Amino acid sequence: MSEVILHNYYRSSTSYRVRIALEMKGISYRYVPHHLRLGEHLEPSYLAVNPQGFVPALIWSDGALLTQSLAIIEFLDEIQPEPPLLPADAHGRARVRMLSQMIACDIHPVNNLRILTSLRTLYGAGDEDVANWFRHWVNETFQPLEKLLTESSETGKFCHGDTPGLADICLVAQVANNARFNLDMDPYPVISRINAECLTLPAFIKAAPQNQPDAE
After folding, report:
1. Which residue of 42, 100, 129, 142 has the fewest CB atoms within a 10 Å radius of its CB?
2. Is 54 within 8 Å of 30 (Cβ atoms)?
3. Beta strands 30-33; 57-59: pairing state
4. Count of CB atoms within 10 A of residue 211's CB?
5. Bond before 56 cis per omega within 30 degrees
6. Whole-angstrom distance, CA of residue 96 vs CA of residue 86
7. Contact (CB, 8 A) for 62 and 1
8. How many other C-beta atoms lie within 10 A of the C-beta of residue 122?
9. How crowded is residue 120: how many other Cβ atoms within 10 Å of its Cβ?
10. Strand-pair partners of 6
11. What residues of the chain score a pLDDT lower than 70?
12. Widest CA span of the chain, in angstroms?
């Protein structure tokens, strides 16, 4: 058995998700940064680790490669069940996965670095065009997400009840990204409240982008 290794980038929201989960689970790991804006994730040495060239990539203690943040987090939840990141009941798990995937599957894929870079290189988009694109797609999902959280009796201090879990991990990482593009959070008081609650917790604080060794 060897150490757990996390290949990631401090500003990557998907990396941020996995860092939060690792901290919540109390799992020690070695931090290996790859500067996405400098293309370090496309270097042959990293492609030999993860052929897709994305972060995060987790090398578990038995040497197994795990990629895709939600898959990694659910793996961690199965390997180390406490504290749980998904509810015990099937309906609760489905709701938490629904909320998580609204962010991870509807916002992130159209707003990640390679898409924003392609807007510039393929279509000549300027900085404000890119920022407007980013804000548009966040708002498209945050509006219904806010409504779902507001109207559900299952929403508590956090997205689902009074303990943080997978949906909160995704929410916090997305809100951190939003700040870089000056997205107005005033229309989203429940999302903002949950985000603020999460950011009082040690695991979320320790995993935050500004607290990573490669932060700029």
Report:
1. 42
2. no
3. unpaired
4. 11
5. yes
6. 7
7. yes
8. 8
9. 13
10. 31, 58
11. 1
12. 49
Question: What pLDDT does residue 2 have?
Answer: 85
Tell me the DSSP string of the chain: ----EEEE-TT-HHHHHHHHHHHHHT---EEEE--GGGTGGGSHHHHTT-TT--S-EEE-TTS-EEESHHHHHHHHHHHS-SS-SS-SSHHHHHHHHHHHHIIIIIIHHHHSHHHHHHHHHHH---HHHHHHHHHHHHHHHHHHHHHHHHH-TTB-SSSSBTS--HHHHHHHHHHHHHHHTT---TT-HHHHHHHHHHTTSHHHHHHSGGGSTT--
Quick check: 86 and 93 in contact, CB under 8 A? yes
Percent of the chain with pLDDT over 90: 99
Does pTM top 0.90 for this prediction?
Answer: yes
| Per-residue pLDDT at 1 | 52
Contacts for 36-40: CB closer than 8 Å, 24+ residues apart: 36/9, 36/11, 36/12, 36/113, 37/113
Taking the C-alpha atoms of residue 127 and residue 100, their distance in angstroms, rounded to an integer, is 28
Say if CB 59 and CB 4 are below 8 A apart. Answer: yes
Bridge partner residues of 7 (DSSP):
32, 57
